[in-house]
Each structure stands twice: as structure tokens, then as C-alpha cells.
Amino acid sequence: MNIGKMHVLMNMWRGLYKVLEGDLKESAEKLGLTVAEQHLVWIIFHEKELTVTALSELSLLNISTVTQVLKRLQTKEMISLNKYPQDRRVSYVNLTEHGSDIAKQILTQRDDYRVLGYFDHAEEDLLTKMNDLQCEMNRFYHGDRFVNWVEKTRKSIDSVGM
Residues 6-47: pLDDT tens digits? Predict the structure, then answer.
């Protein structure tokens, strides 16, 4: 790819991400969260229980960032960190009842995302191709586990009509 194509790709995706990032920030603030906190709550909600390392992998955040965010969520009484007797070195993360309630509120904030409005009017074939491209690129950079998790959770969300 020449540098001109890279310039277009980077700036067009960044432009779209800025819209989504602004919407995510606004919706998170309504719930008293940061975008990073909202992101981790979302993942934990879908996984029910996972290790800090697995949460780091799925969130695409380094483990020290995840640990810092989890401390804030623990202070807000949204998560619990548990160690199992079989291996005291590993911490498992779960949502508390309060955290689960917040996660359900995140799922119902669909009107807060301007990008969803575009999808209502876009050509289905274009959206399918865009999704396929994003999946293939993320598979290349982040692996099957990440892409499969995103697809699995999308199907879960779609099945309950959210």
C-alpha cells in the first residue's frame, strides 16, 4: 500500500472513530463511568467471569491499565475480584449486582450512538463488506479468539433484540 492510501485509511477510520468515541464518552458519563470502565463492564457482562489476563486480551488494553480500571470499578462496587483455592495467583473478575444493572443500562442506550443512525440508511451489501474487512483485519492483528468473541457477543445481543 502506498503512503497516500495509508493516509486516507488512517484519517477516514479516525474520523469515524472520533464520532463513536464521543458517543461512548457521553453514554459512559451518564452512568458515572469512563469509556474504559464502560468497556470492561461490557466485556465482563458478556463473559460472566474471566481472568484479568483474559479481560486484558479481549479489551485490547494492557494488563496494568486493566488492573487500574478494575480498582476503580471495585471502588464503585461494580465488580468483585476472586481467587480460587486451586490457584491463588489468578484473579477472576465478576460483576456485582450493581455492575450487572449498569451493564444492562449500557445495552439499552442505543439512541445515544449516532453511528447506529447511519446503519439504518446504509446499503446492506456495503455493511456486510465493511464488517468482513474489519473482521479479517482484526483477525490478522488480534487473532481468531478476539474476532470470534466479537461475533459471539454480537449474536448474543441480536438474539435478545438489543
Answer: 898 888 889 989 998 999 999 899 999 999 999 999 999 999
- Residue 80 phi, psi dihedral angles, 5° rounding: -125, 145
Segment 47-75 shows an average pLDDT of 96
Measuring CA to CA, how many Å separate 144 from each of 40, 136, 137, 139? 20, 9, 11, 5
On whether the CB atoms of residues 145 and 57 are closer than 8 A, the answer is: yes
Which residues constitute the domain of residue 44? 3-117
Q: Collect all residues with Cβ–Cβ distance below 8 Å to 65 and sequence separation of at least 6.
A: 36, 56
Domain final residue, candidates 117, 135, 153: 117
Residue with cell 477510520: 13
* Residue 57, pLDDT above cutoff 90: yes
17 and 86 inside one domain: yes
CA distances for 27 relative to 19, 41, 146, 158, angstroms: 12, 13, 24, 20
